[in-house]
Amino acid sequence: MQQTLQRSLDSKTRQRWNGRLGGLACALCALLPVAGWAGPNGIKIGVLTDMSGQYAAISGPGSVVAAQMAIDDFGGKVLGKPITLVSADHQNKADIGVAKAREWIDTQNVDMIADLVNSGVAIAVQKLGAEKHRITIVNGAGSTALTNKECSPFGVHYAYDTYAIAKGTATALAKQGLDSWFFLQADYAFGQALQSDAARIVTGLGGKVTGTVKHPFNTTDFASYLLQAQSSGAKVVGLANAGADFTNAVKQAREFGLKQTIAGLLVFDTDIKALGLATAQGMKFTTAYTWELNAETEAFGKRFLAKHNAMPTMSQAGVYSSTMMYLNAVKAANSDDAEAVMKKMRELTVNDFFAKNGKLRPDGRFVHDMYLVEVKSPAESRSNWDQLKLVATIPGDQAFMPLAESTCPLIHK
Amino acid sequence: MMDIPFQALVSQAMLGLNNGAFYALLSLGLAVIYGMLDVVNFAHGAFYMLGAFLALIGLDYLPVWTGIEGLRLGFWMALLLVPPLVGLLGITVEALMLRRIARLQPIYGLLLTFGLALILEGLFANHFNSGGEPYGGKPAALEGAVDLGFMMFPRYRLFSMVLAIVVCLAVWWGIERTRFGAQLRAGTENPDVARAFGINVPRLRSLTYFLGTALAGLAGVVAAPIYTVSPHMGSEIVIVIFAVVVIGGMGSILGAVVTGLALGLLEGLVKVIYPPLANTVIFVVMALVLLWRPAGLFGREA
Amino acid sequence: MSAARAPGLLGSPALLSWIGVLALGVLLPFLVYPVLAMEMLCFALFASAFNLLLGYGGLLSFGHAAFFGIGAYVCGHAAKVWQLDPLLALACGTAAGVMLGVAFGAVAIRRQGIYFAMVTLALAQIVYFVLLQAPFTGGEDGLQGIPRGALLGVLDLQSESVLLGQRAAWGLYGLVLAVTVSGHFLIARVLASPTGLALRSVQEHEPRARSLGLPASGLKFGMLVLSAGLAALAGALKALVLGLAALTDATWQMSGEVVLMTLIGGVGTLAGPAVGAGLLRYLHHTLAGLGSWVTVVLGGIFVFCVLVFRRGMIGEWLAWWQRSRAAVGSSGR
Fold first, then answer.
1. Are B110 and C117 in contact (CB under 8 A)?
2. Chain A to chain B Cβ contacts (< 8 Å)
3. Which of B109, B153, B225, C112 is the most exposed place for a label (fewest CB within 10 A)?
4. CA-CA distance, B297 to C219, in Å (whole number)?
């Protein structure tokens, strides 16, 4: 894997230099109109992710590994040409992400951009994809805006979204009589989407929202927000954040002796690992994948574990599954043209360890089953990564926002 | 917004004071360095970050890197060892770099230390998760929370607050009441006269920088169990500390401590009354103070 | 600071650098990726605007990112929500910068040296949080989807075409180059004017200038406002190029970076900041794959410049050129 990456990096640099020297020669002589240096016609996939920040554990290098696994499993070639992988760190900044994606498309002819953790970055890059006619497959980010207001004819939202995770968890808690919520919300696109989706579902179930407090992305001190939650009197403190923000908030809630139920809305296997079973036990949340589900999920999980030293999160598993789907669509379309491939992706039905009868909707939403899980107690856990048990399977057509409610302009022309 | 529960107000005030104690500790070091060396130490936040990371490294990485389990340094060891270590780095920086530009305008000192801060932050962001890593070395004796009647307050936070205030008072006392303090003040007021009286001014400068940066390192160690240890923790706080020092009066020790605590408290209260203003209230206060008293609350007009 | 300044701003050495910079401006999109070229030009204008204050007014502002950022956001808002012509959107961004400059000046202009640096830093921090929290800015995501539009309704800034083998949005490039060059021309004209000369005498010896009846504070205030406006124009231009206004543009790290650009190129030289800005953006671009090493490299350059390279590239070159002409000794120390 390392070598492949190295090789692709080398060729990338060489290509860039060739381009530059060519440009110089051209500018200097200004005589012959030289044809462009179009890249080789093989498929190039770019994994744009957070390599070293908050979300590095839930996507990051693991998503690069997952994409490479998919390419290798596919045979490394499609339509007789090699599939190459490039990756870059967007540092959770939309401007850096867009600049990188633009450069990939302009100078390296990248065909598909994958992972895209962080909703702010994902929305910006999906917009760029729509403008430049390139496919973007979002796995890491969750905002439902991606398939609603901001939907794109070339955008796929694959693993999960804020509606699906909020719905599963809020419904489960409502059944226990926990019906008043106070939200701690990460103050960016993802947090806003998660909070508003969750609040809508809570009120739809007859519950009420007593208040919401926004905190900056990457907050280390949650004390004052938690105290506000405490004095709100709500039964549930809903955490509309993710990654380190989520784990820090949970830990500090314990520190300040919060007695309310802490509901993590977006929780990854790696977060549970970071918190430890003793702290997290009993917590219920919704996920698109976890390796404990069945033999198939376990087989993928163990293969991934051997390469990456951690079990895959739902985003990383989604990167694998969606990259496979994309390559299959390229093969079926017999073309790397974005429009042709998107058409095929809408026709395909995915049946793998990740999705059963998975279908892509016109708004870009990939529909598949979701799972309500519960964190095991330390006594129940039999091995290092044995953390979750299945409570209920939520069928795809109930898990995601109905297409009729989508505000995507593409479907209501 | 209309009726704010008294309990919430008091609780947030406590948290504000807790933050204020850190502001005080950090701005104290900054004020000492500025008063003596005329250097606005932009790297102060980086030294604070370094303190926290050294504590983290001692706990989690040292045994792994060396392969010797006995080298695992707990919180108390870190509290003892890290500040002088950071101070030594401070002395090195002073001797190798700051001394070379001492005769130039103070702006160059600001720019140099800004560069240093970037280097330190970048180095740590390369090796550690830039989103931060938790420090798991909180002493068992300080686990749990104390019931203050109006709120449950984590024992460790209480400890950190008391420790910071005690250190601030001790440093203030040392500078005002001891022989070293007197020399330091003399060196600050008039280096040439001080030298004429046989005071070794260069050594005094080194010691000052040692003291100032060690204070930042200490703040880092104390902060580690509360906040996530992050490469960016220094750059997040350093601007606030600057504002505190400017409000208190550049170089005024007492000003730094009192202003630090007061502004922490103010910030806590604003969080309850009007949260969106919480991040900026310190800078707004700074602008107002400068319009009214250009040299700061405790400073003398230069 | 006085060591870093070189005389003869419109003399032949500066003229040469002028021609050099202009030629580079035309060649640039053939040498580097065109979007990067446009970004380099925007930052060149930003750094030169900053230098107006540091190099000729002797004031180190550590809050210039506030002007750059507000220009980007206001221009973006004007183009996206109000759907104004790109030229009007740029004007809106610039106007916002000018107003902010007036506000900064009211609080900070009587402070000097370190105090001025710290006050501007704190004021910029307020602007940063306003941009983070205000309802129209998109918070951490920034203001996205800013349309490039069509200049005066005619010249399409969005569409790309192939020119001499290089594919780029050439209309946009033309606009960026024109604005950047005009900005620099304005700066040169102001500095060569009596006002500019008066400003320099204030910087050299303020009490003497005051005793000669020069309105020192007024001059500095004017320069701050001009500098703020041009910095905002640069930010607005960048927002059009990239199609988004990002919070990064308004952080104090950005304020630091513009200081570095100016320092590395040459404080108080006309071409220096532009060259420094281009170089630094290019470094950013090529080192992007190295993650945080970029920060380390920038920090290292900073330390190096302050310790041994205070004249900067163009400053050193000018000094060398003058030495080799020998007739007039170099006036710097």
1. yes
2. 64
3. C112
4. 29
Give the model's pLDDT for residue A161: 92
Which ipTM was obtained for this model?
Answer: 0.85
What pLDDT, on the 0 to 100 scale, is given for residue A3? 42
Are domains A38-160+296-368 and A163-287+370-399 of this chain identical in fold? yes
Q: Is the Cβ pair C139, A93 closer than 8 Å?
A: no
CATH number, span B6-135+144-292? 1.10.3470
Q: In this complex, do B119 and C130 lie within 8 Å of one another by their Cβ atoms?
A: no
Between A144 and B191, whose confidence is greater? A144
Q: What is the assigned CATH class of domain A38-160+296-368?
A: alpha beta
Instruction: Indicate if the pLDDT at residue A175 is higher than 50.
Output: yes
Nearest 5°: the CA angle C76, C80, C81 is: 110
* The pLDDT value given to residue C11: 55
Closest listed residue to residue C44, CA positions, set C236, C289, C271, C217:
C271
Instruction: Give the pairing type, strands A370-375 and A388-394.
Output: antiparallel
Residue C124 has a pLDDT of 93
Q: What is the pLDDT of residue B179?
A: 87
Partnered with residue C245 across adjacent β-strands are C143
Q: Measured between CB atoms, does A60 come within 8 Å of chain B?
A: no
Q: What is the mean pLDDT of residues C316-332?
A: 71
Chain B residues whose CB is inside 8 A of the A218 CB are 131-132, 230, 232
Of A227, A244, A255, the CB nearest to B131: A244
Q: Please spell the DSSP secondary structure of B62-93, one letter per residue.
A: HHHHH--GGG---HHHHHHHHHHHHHHHHHHH
B276-295 per-position pLDDT tens digit: 788 889 999 988 888 788 78
pLDDT for B128:
82
pLDDT confidence tier of residue C326, bands split at 50, 70 and 90: low
Predicted model pTM:
0.85
Interface of C with A (CB under 8 A): 27, 30-33, 35-36, 132, 138-142, 144-145, 162, 164-167, 242-244, 246-249, 288-289, 291-292
DSSP letters, C282-320, are: HHHHHHGGGTTHHHHHHHHHHHHHHHH-TTHHHHHHHHH
Indicate if the pLDDT at residue A32 is higher than 80: no
Over range C279-305, report the average pLDDT. Answer: 86
For residue C254, the model assigns a pLDDT of 92
Contact C303/B at CB under 8 A: yes
Paired tokens of A402:
């109905």
The answer to whether the Cβ–Cβ distance between B283 and C263 falls below 8 Å is no
Give Cβ neighbours of residue B66 (< 8 Å, ≥ 6 apart): none
Instruction: Give the C-alpha distances (Å, rounded to integers) separating B276 from B272, C112, C130, C135.
Output: 10, 31, 9, 11
Interchain contact, A227 vs B129, CB within 8 Å: no
CATH of A163-287+370-399, one of 3.30.70.20, 3.60.15.10, 3.40.50.2300, 3.40.570.10: 3.40.50.2300
Three-class SS state of C270: coil
Q: Tokens standing for A299?
A: 């087989």
Could you read off the pLDDT of C150-172 as tens digits, one per residue? Answer: 778 777 777 777 777 777 788 88
Would you call A307 an interface residue with chain B, using a CB distance cutoff of 8 Å?
no
Which positions in chain B touch C129 (Cβ < 8 Å)?
Answer: 279-280
Question: What's the pLDDT tens digit per position in B127-141?
Answer: 887 767 788 888 888
Cβ distance B107 to C121 less than 8 Å, yes or no, reads no
What pLDDT sits at residue B4? 64
Q: Where are the domains of chain B?
A: 6-135+144-292
In chain A, where are the structural domains located? 38-160+296-368, 163-287+370-399
* Phi–psi pair at C126, nearest 5 degrees: -60, -45
CA distance C206 to chain A (A): 42
User: C111: nearest CA in chain B?
Assistant: B294
Interface touch C295/B121, C-beta < 8 Å: yes
